[in-house]
Design a protein that fits this description.
The chain is of the alpha/beta class. It contains 8 helices and 18 strands.
Length: 339
């Protein structure tokens, strides 16, 4: 009997359901785990995604034929029972549960286990086969609690503001920026050290989050802030804005990067930045193992990331483990989306 899910050049293919999951090119029907650019591509005829992520997905892909589902609602797609369950990665990020022929698969997309209020928390889903990411599937990757990292960012910003120096924090426009914003608002004992200025790419995603009901602190664009205030501002910008003319508006500034890749000192050195904050929207090594255990799956298939390492480890533990080679393999680097 054919596998319920198989890797094809276009993406993960469900033969009985006649649909792709996170295809890398236009297809007839696409089920989307989340709106990051390495998972959601424009041009498909029909899309199915979690309702929580509708605003960010439309902001990313424009006017698409999109059907959405509430968390846990099950529908029949050509004989395959399909439902979406929170992955905790970014707003609307979903694990997709597929049931057919007496077997249940869960395709996880990207996920993280530490909860915060910027998106729905990860929900373990019992299954026979679990398709897991492996972005940070090395034992060296172990995240500190988010609150500690947010406090570090707040103190760095306050020190810079006290010296009339802007704080430029590079972070991914979808998910990471909004997580930082929500965390700063929750962590600040009183007022923040200055205004928060967002690059246009971040501002676009902020609007989608707010339209989805996620409360974020006030933010401004660079043109809305007086020059004197810019010197005390926290500036949230995507990595692509580094060394751009836009940054010259802030004068002398301290820069930093928020990413799980900051766990490696060499990454910070190569980027030539002042600070690195280890904050990832993906599961770390203990998180990956905890998530896999929680599914109760007897078989695990690893995708993009350190898949070979995870497969060897799981086999040593007695699980049936293998890997899918997908188009996402090329995104498993510090330049990928939402790391």
């Amino acid at each position: 009997m054919a596998e319920l899910v198989a890797a094809r050049p276009e993406g993960l293919w469900c033969e009985p359901g006649r649909f792709f999951i996170d295809p890398s090119q236009p297809v007839e029907r696409a089920l989307i785990t989340h709106a990051h650019g390495d998972h959601a591509y424009a041009g498909s005829a029909r899309y199915l995604a979690a309702r929580e992520g509708e605003q960010v997905l439309r902001a990313r892909l424009g006017d698409i034929a999109l059907e959405t589902l509430d968390w846990g609602r099950r529908i029949d797609v050509n004989g395959v029972q399909v439902s979406f369950h929170p992955a905790g990665h970014v707003l609307g990020a979903a694990q997709i549960r597929l049931a057919h022929g007496g077997e249940t698969w869960v395709v996880s997309g990207d996920y993280r286990l530490e909860a915060d209020r910027s998106c729905s928390a990860f929900e373990p889903v019992r299954c026979d086969v679990f398709v897991t990411e492996s972005t940070f599937a090395l034992p060296i990757y172990r995240w500190r609690p988010q609150r500690e990292v947010i406090d570090e960012i707040l103190h760095w910003w306050a020190d810079n503001a006290g010296a009339s120096r802007a704080s430029v924090l590079f972070c991914y426009a979808l998910g990471k920026a909004q997580r930082i914003l929500a965390g700063l608002a929750d962590a600040a004992d009183a007022s923040l050290p200055g205004v928060i200025v967002c690059h246009g790419a971040v501002a676009s995603m902020n609007r989608a989050y707010r339209a989805s009901g996620v409360a974020l602190p006030p933010t401004s664009t660079v043109d809305e802030v007086e020059r004197a205030a810019l010197r005390r501002a926290l500036v949230l910008a995507p990595p692509s804005a580094a060394r751009s003319p836009w940054l010259r508006r802030f004068g002398t500034a301290s820069d930093a990067f928020a990413s799980g890749w900051m766990q490696l000192r060499g990454t910070r050195r190569r980027r030539a930045i002042d600070r690195g904050f280890v904050l990832s929207d993906h599961a770390d090594w203990p998180g990956l193992n905890a998530a896999i255990d929680a599914t109760g799956a007897s078989r695990v298939v690893a995708t993009h990331g350190y898949a070979d390492v995870l497969v060897r480890w799981l086999r040593e533990r007695g699980l049936d483990a293998s890997r899918f080679a997908t188009p996402l393999e090329s995104e498993s680097s510090e330049e990928g989306n939402g790391r």
